[in-house]
Design goal:
It is an enzyme of class 2 (transferase). GO terms for molecular function: ATP binding; glucokinase activity. Keywords: ATP-binding, Kinase, Nucleotide-binding, Transferase. It is globular, with a radius of gyration of 21 Å. The longest helix has 25 residues, at 235-259. By secondary structure, the chain is an alpha/beta fold. The protein has helices spanning 37-40, 43-57, 97-105, 114-125, 186-189, 191-204, 210-216, 223-231, 235-259, 275-287, 291-296, 308-318; strands spanning 4-10, 14-21, 26-33, 65-72, 75-77, 82-84, 109-113, 134-139, 143-149, 152-153, 263-267, 298-301. It has a five-stranded mixed β-sheet with strand order 3-2-1-4-7. α2 runs parallel beside α3 (97-105) and α4 crosses α12.
Length: 319
Amino acid sequence: MSKKIIGIDLGGTSIKFAILTSEGEIQEKWSIKTNILDEGSHIVEDMIESILHRLDLLQLSAEDFIGIGMGSPGVVDREKGTVIGAYNLNWKTLQPVKDKIEKATGIPFYIDNDANVAALGERWMGAGENQPDVVFMTLGTGVGGGIVAEGKLLHGLAGAAGELGHITVDFDQPIQCTCGKKGCLETVASATGIVNLTRRYADEYAGDAELKKLIDNGEDVNAKVVFDLAKEGDELALIVYRNFARYLGIACANIGSILNPSTIVIGGGVSAAGDFLLDGVRKVYEENSFPQVRTSTKLALATLGNDAGVIGAASLVLQ
C-alpha cells in the first residue's frame, strides 16, 4: 500500500484535515472548531487529539504516512516549524507547532503560510494545471497571495513575497490600509474594498440606482449585493464593478509583467461572482499588459474552493 499524507488547513473558525494519496487525491476529510481561548493554547493539542483519534478509527499508524503538511496564518518559520503573530488564533507568543505534533504523532511535519499553501493547492490540483509558474490571488476580507515560480514557492528575504494585497493601485482617493500605507489593492479589491468603493461612488452619484437607495437607507451592503445588482444593470453598482475591475486588472497586468506565470488564479469569497467578475478584470488586464505577457499569461478562477488549503498543505510534504 502506498503511503499517505495528512493535510491541515488552520483557520480562525475551523481546522480542516484531509488524508490524501501522494497523487493529491483526497480519501478522507473532517474538521473541528478552532478553540482560541487561553491565548490559543488548546489549538495544537486539539489537532493532535483529532489526528490520533482519526488514525485509530481508520486503523492507521505513523508508518502509513510520508508526512503531515499544514497551512497557518501568522508569521511562519518553516525551518523551525513555529508560528507567531497569528492574531485570529490568539497566538501572540511563539508556538512550537512542529515539535509538538512530531513528538505526539511520530510523523514528519511541514508548515508554511496559509496563502502560500492555498497557492500550492491550486497550482497542483486546481486551475494552475500543475504548471511550474502560477500566481494565486485570494480575494476575501483582505487580499492574500502566493507565487510559485519554476515549481517553487517564493518566500522572499523576510517571508513577505506574494503580499499581493499591498501592491499600490489606488492613486485617485487612496484609503488607509491596515498595513499602515495608503492605496493598497486590498482597500479596493477585497470584500471590504468593494464596500469602500461603494461608499466612495455613492457619495458622488446623483441618480436613483437601487444600490444608492440601499446605502442611503443605511442597509448592510456587501460584495455579493453589489455584483448581483451590477449583473442586473444597476447604474451605481456598475460604476463600482468597473472601478473594482480597473484596480484588479492593473494589478494583474503588473504581476504578469514581473513574473509571466502561465496562470494568475483568482480565488476567495469575492471570486464567487464567477465569470462576470473575471470578464471585467480580463478586459482591463489585456488593455494594460505587455504583448508577450498578454498572449501567454491567462487569468482563471480558482477551482478547488475550500479544499485548496488541505491539498496545498499535503503538497508541502512532497516539495
